[in-house]
């Protein structure tokens, strides 16, 4: 069998010819060989390959334009290993930051040790709900999605947790069950056009979860119906994208009543998160 380093170096040359990042090569090698991190590709470089044929197959798929997470069905999110496929978005560092911000901010609104009712709207892979259930085991968490396929993926990732899955559009399943919430988290579609998305994203990830539509404005639907599920003061946390700030402010002023909000920018200076204190 060839050594890991020999396969890795050859794959890097092949990747460069197709403008593929070296990080993708390390990711595929990591999963194919059962390593715990991409750094192990270097650390175990003198080890003989266990699965060279599988790695070669995956490299061909990456060259054909598939993301490494869909190829391996493996994505890491805040130390959780998640199953993903084309029915859900690939979890991203931006969403990890959203969860991290919730953990930092929540004590400004509630005692996080208490039993709190929480909704993860448009859960997709279940990444947010999975992370929150780990950080806050006393919380009662409901994760919803309109997509049956997404819920099937989320069910795999939420196995062994206390998260309950609901099927339906935005707050409809919560209203139907008569649930009253303390916290709402959502990562709705916010990309304004396909031209804004990178080709690998545009060609592989589900349109419904990516692109903002005026005719199906998830943010507005949530703000419009929020009082139907509001138990008392609420904390709302959203991932957003640049270009929709004025729409968000207009909808909040129209539907929310007494509230304060903060729009947080990412390290590129782009509007990326919305946090709302709803009285």
Cross-sheet strand order for the largest sheet: 5-4-3-6-7-9-8
Mean pLDDT: 95
Helix/strand/pairing category: alpha/beta
* CATH homology-level superfamily of the largest domain: Vaccinia Virus protein VP39
- Cα Rg: 20 Å
Task: Based on the coordinates given, report the CATH architecture of the largest domain.
Answer: 3-Layer(aba) Sandwich
By CATH, the topology of the largest domain is: Rossmann fold
Biggest sheet: strands, sense, closure? Answer: 7 strands, mixed
- Discrete helix count: 13
For the secondary structure, the number of strands is 9
* Proportion in β-strands: 15-25%
Low-confidence stretches: none
Report the end-to-end length measured between terminal Cα atoms.
Answer: 64 Å
- Oligomeric form of this entry? single chain
Which CATH top level class of the largest domain fits? Alpha Beta
| Dominant shape | elongated
3D architecture notes:
- With 279 residues, the chain is an alpha/beta fold.
- It folds into two domains: 4-72; 85-278, 3-Layer(aba) Sandwich (Rossmann fold).
- Helices cover 42% and strands 19% of the residues.
- The protein is built from 13 helices and nine strands.
- It has helices at 4-17, 22-33, 40-43, 52-63, 68-72, 93-105, 127-135, 148-157, 172-177, 199-202, 207-210, 218-229, 245-255; strands at 75-77, 80-82, 117-121, 140-145, 164-167, 181-186, 230-239, 259-265, 271-278.
- The strands form two sheets. A seven-stranded mixed beta sheet has the order 5-4-3-6-7-9-8. It has a two-stranded antiparallel sheet with strand order 1-2.
- Helix 1 runs antiparallel to helix 2 (22-33), helix 2 packs antiparallel against helix 4 and helix 6 runs parallel beside helix 7 (127-135).
- It starts with a helix and ends with a strand.
- The mean pLDDT is 95.
